[in-house]
Structure formats: C-alpha cells, structure tokens
Design brief:
The chain is an alpha/beta fold and 145 residues long. 19% of the residues lie in helices and 25% in strands. The strands form two sheets. Strands 4-7-6-5 form a four-stranded mixed β-sheet. The chain has a three-stranded mixed β-sheet with strand order 1-2-3.
C-alpha cells in the first residue's frame, strides 16, 4: 500500500559496477521496530532480482512526517489512516507540556472534523487512536514528528 520512498524513509540507493546495491534508510523514530522488517524486505526483494544488498541505517537528517510524499499521504487515507499534518519546527529548547496533544484532523472515512482522541498511542508509538464523532468509525492517525 505504501512504498519506503512514499513513506520518506528511503534516503539513497547506490549501485556499484557489479551486482551490489547499498540502500540507506532512516527510521521514523528512534527504536522503530519496523526497521528490521524493512531491511529484510529490501534484501529479499533485491535478491529476487539477482542483486546483493547492504542496508545502512542513516540517522541524519532525522526523518520527519513532512517527508511523506503526496502519494504516500493519499495511500494512508485510502487505507483508513489519517495522514500527519505539518511537523512543528523548533529552533531552541522545547518546553515540556504534559497536556494532551491537540491536532486538527479529519476522519479518513467521512471527512468530518469531529475526531475524538481515544489513545495517544496506537498499535505503534508513531500512531494515535481516534474515533470519529460523526460516523463513529475508529481510525489511526500517523503522528507529526
């Protein structure tokens, strides 16, 4: 449904003169459990094409939800996930705020703005759970990072 390029984690693909490919990917957040799966999928897919691959994890520049492409945002919405809004940029110290995060988002099912936060943490730490107050459907929101 979503490519690594559309998600914005694919940073570089370098091919040497032989059949070796070096792929650089960036985690969506520190400790992302999907990194091993992404690496294994890349190595297997490239091996299926007769290529050997090395996958490098690159931490800088850090991934941002702004790196998701328009096609990636459309794919998220098409599969019932709410795409993140623009990431907040900070130039200095970040104040600690223990209040719930307020987001302006729409239901990916009906487009209503009546989204109600159910849990700040979904099946993964990078998503939050919401329920639409208009259509009643639950949905995940990919957090802004």
């Amino acid at each position: 449904m979503l490519t690594l390029a559309d998600l914005g984690v694919l940073r570089a693909v370098d091919v040497d003169e032989g059949d070796h490919v070096t792929v650089s990917i960036t985690p969506t957040y520190s400790g992302c459990p999907a990194m091993a799966s992404m690496r294994d999928d890349l190595v297997r897919t490239l091996a299926d094409e007769g290529l050997t691959a090395t996958v490098k994890v690159v931490l800088a520049p850090a991934w941002s939800s702004d790196d998701i492409t328009p096609a990636g945002r459309a794919a998220l919405a098409a599969h019932g996930l709410s795409a993140p809004g623009p990431a907040t940029r900070h130039t200095g110290p970040i104040a600690l705020n223990l209040m719930p995060v307020r987001r302006s988002l729409t239901c990916p099912h009906c487009g209503s703005y009546a989204a109600q936060l159910s849990s700040e943490f979904g099946p993964t730490a990078c998503t939050a759970l919401y329920r639409c107050g208009a259509c009643g459907e639950p949905f995940e929101h990919v957090k802004e990072i």
